[in-house]
Fold each of these.
Amino acid sequence: MLDVRQSSHYADFLKREGWIVERTKGVNYFIRKFPVVGSILKLQRPEKIDFEVVEKLRRKYGIFQTIIEPEDELQTKSLGSNGFKLSKNPYLPSKTLQIGLTKSEKTILSGFKKDARQAIRKAAFAMSYGEPKGDRYFIKECSTPNDIREWRESWKNSVKFNRYVPPVEQLLNLRKSFGDKKSLFLASHNISGSIIGGALFTISSHGVSNYISYYWYGFTNKEGRSSLSQYSLLYQGILWAKKMGCKVFDFEGIYDSRFPIKNWLGFSHFKKSFGGTEVLYPGCYTKFRLPI
């Protein structure tokens, strides 16, 4: 399964963010230069780890830290034998949930837990999609740069000041790289038109076909949580992924006791209400060497 980090769209996104991208034998290698100390190299969920290429890039760019996040346990064995150590803090979520999208919409919905199904049905009576109708909440796609700026500002206003929210330039770069066929910004609005929640989804292709969709970001304010709008936002993203021909929907991270982050417990409970199969990744492996 091709991880989104190995797609051409993600490679283009990181280029826009100032990374150097080397693509060799279908694998993306991401390099970031730092003054004085040298560079780091990231290799994330590749289908194959080529240590000769890693060494070549290390010498070329003066890399002092190599970060590899393997796809499976088989790859971890080769990492250990090549001097890599398990990090305490993975860069990518080490545990996630996935649901299949090849079944009917009705079957997918039946796989959700009772609280999720009830929240979606409840919201269906209070929400419309695309345009406001009377006194109902509504969900709408954010498709223009101004829409995305407003979406991001609403996210910033929904969380505490110390919570990280990506800068608007990063979100706009992501939209430019993935386009409207591989990314979807959704926002739920109250009856006055204010955004009360939002969600971002991306798609990774395998060959010429869309294969896997990711729940990239999500947020709600107090009003959004009380109206349970986050359930409808996520459900609409799942339906969009299915419509776009994706075979798998990935929730992009849940709480993992191996690498515990306590503030992940809340949204992990929310994500688990949609059912799905848990998928474990080995974590992150790093290696430090003096740059040449």
Note: The chain has a mean pLDDT of 93.
Amino acid sequence: MSFTVHATIRAQQRALPPIAIELLREFGEEAYDGRGGIRRYFSKRSRRRLERAWGSVPVRLFSKYLNAYIVESSHDGHILTAAHRTKRAKN
């Protein structure tokens, strides 16, 4: 998992731990943004997959990170930015 300098700074500023980003890459839904990036976020379906894999108690403790998202490059897989969602993800 490789970060750009911007993504490293943003993840630190927004208090997103590396485990949250790793879980987004593994369980998150993906949507292409039309500009060479892939958004990954937790949807209801991906939250259920996470609960089946990890159990309900860890997911409940992890709930403050379930509104996070990352943007990856579709060319080389670098993480471009990380943030918390404030609006519903458009599909």
Note: Strands lie at 29-32, 37-41, 68-73, 79-84.
Amino acid sequence: MLDRIERLLSGVDDDKLFFISSYPNIFYYSGFTSEDAYLMISKNKRILVTDSRYTVQARNQAKGFDIVNIEGGWENIFKLLDEICISFEDEKMSVAEYKKLKEHSKNKIWLKEQSVIDMPRRIKDKDELRLIADAEKLGDDAFLHVLNYIKTGMTEREVALELEIYMKKHGASGLSFETIVASGIRSSMPHGVASDKVIERGDLVTMDFGCVYNGYCSDMTRTIVMGEADEKQREIYDIVLKAQLEALNNIKIGMNCSDADRIARTVITDAGYGMNFGHSLGHSVGIEIHEKPLFSPRSADILEEGHVLSVEPGIYIDGFGGVRIEDLIGVIDGEIVNFTSSPKELIIV
């Protein structure tokens, strides 16, 4: 945690304080696993503010932080704001919280610096990379398990629940996001969360899911076919797989993230389905399921050591169905490491 704080404070003046209010950043900088808290970090201050329900937990988890009980009300916070410049999470703090803080600290300069506070999280350290790899391994295991479970006649919700139960039984504390199981023509919806639709023979079934394991997210997608695949389904699947493999084989440290998107998008566009690939190639994953940088056509980021991103091209045809294949990669010791090991050839169940 100390290295993370040092990176946050690098080049910061003595009269500046970071006021951190969102759970992901509270967890990242302190190790405290509750959202009912605030952090105050400056050159000479490490304070975690919470209430009596969590003070024992905070002392055990947030090593190096002074723990302040907020039972006395907001006044306890105002008394601690000695610094002139206060950097806060403008994208995460509620309007009510902000108004109350401003009202009681009129002599302070409040700086909207969400990106500054988030920035250190872009580069994952060795421990974070290991935890993300462990989380993704649990997702791989869940996928192999569900291949032996899924049958025609089941609903999408039943399949989603089986994935979720497996991951939680094997150590997940929660889900990275609401599980997507989209079958038949519903697979044309990139974020078609599981419904009561019955899975039928001949359906494409896209499963996009992830878990939270020791505080870090996993994310993967596989598309299968039930019973028998027709020519169109095989065509689309082969194009998406080719696009993903082309990207995976050419992504390198130091490249512009927009170039990674272009590699996959070119394959799909040249095959005549450019208009059917509407989202970016990928996003960073960590404490939250959607972080930065992005593999996006508009990204100006450079791929660096410690970055973790998804690689997930897709083709979605309204009224027919869709295919997405997603792996999670990390940059470790200058090399691209794929955390996802589930098979990618077309699986027919």
Note: The longest strand covers residues 45-50.
Amino acid sequence: MNRLKSFLKWGALSLCVLLVILAAAWAISKMMYPTQAQREAIAEMESLPEYGGDNAFALLWSLGYDVPDAELEQVLEEDVQRFSETPLVPDPEEEAVYTGFDSVKTDYASLSPSSEDRGMFCGDRDESCLEKVRQDLDAYQAMIERNRRLLDRVSRLDEFEYLRSPFPPRMNAPIPAYQPASYLRTRHAVEFASGNEREAIASVCREIQTWRRLSANSELMIDRIYGIANATKHNGALLANMLSEWPVDQPLPAPCDSALAPPELADVSLCNAVHGEFARVAFSVRTLDQYNSGLLDRLLMPVFIDAEASAGLSAEHFQRYCDASTDAALLADRQPARATQSSVARFECVGNLYGCILSAIAEPGYSQYESRTLDHGAHLRVLGTLAWMRQNAGVGRTPKALLEDRPDALKSPERNIVFGPEGRTLQVPLYEPEFTGDGRERVHVHWSIPLPPALYEKAGG
């Protein structure tokens, strides 16, 4: 009996000591974090990039509506105000997770194509937009004419320099409808198939140039990823198909010079985009207390999460996408070391356990986007190589020699551009894997574009 009493006494004492140690560790952790380095990282991430020229967001926001140019900014400003006035936390009695708002742009006439016309536009998975429109060129010419007003508005995006959303950085902040911005590709294909080949090629190069610029100068990951896909994966493929049918002695239109220039750091970096991503994460953790309706929630939340410490963790992670070592790797077309899931068994997590868990879950997810931007750079090198080979064809060098002699700026130390097995394409391996047809396995693939006959690499040549 005495032993039991002694055991209980020492057990209780040990538990009290442990609780005191944990409380002290929690208090010290709260005082230590965020560190000065993390506060500096927060300040860096909160400092938005500077761009010249005009913001395309107002036009992109109202793209599918017949809003006069003079009213675009006014409509956007009113919509931002309406959204800002919606409650951050929905009424518990409402079934919807987020409270919506009525956009001013819907007061104007819709320019959206009919469902039948939408099905005619070239989609992301169309292997050859040219082949698609040639199947019924008359019908496509009529469809393009029916949607001329919308397509003319989309073409105006080339007048802008950057994309920045003025909406508050809430996770449910609205984004533009991007689909109409991809419709121009079909008009360019129809123009080429109708015999206006030089004009069509110039238009596609302008489209590549536009989205190459807007994507690089944007602060939301969705803008970044949509932009690079629209620039090279889709319009780049269309341009290559056009050039495979165009005589190599025809000089490319002037817009192609800058559109197909070798990739620079801005083309492959995620630095600008992560500023917007940080803003959304920081806003979320700083407003978590507004979601706590019960007394227990309000008491426990400060124990398990520190908003500024969580913002510091996030800022440190996103800062990696802007540092010099990352820039050097990207310029060398080398994938930077991928972020791994951080352990929560470290001292800074004692006073911020929930923040550490959230950070550990989110961090690895952004690394995949670096693969996409590097593949965008690879697309640009392939397209630039095609343009250079065309320009230098007919000077006594074989296609193989032309490919080998291309400028160093069009070469990568990590992956080479080669002729396809049949000698009629150029191809480069991609970093981002794709799912197989059954969706069960991710495999690495090549990006391949067709060559004009004058640049075919003959067997043994």
Note: Confidence is low (pLDDT under 50) at residues 95-99.
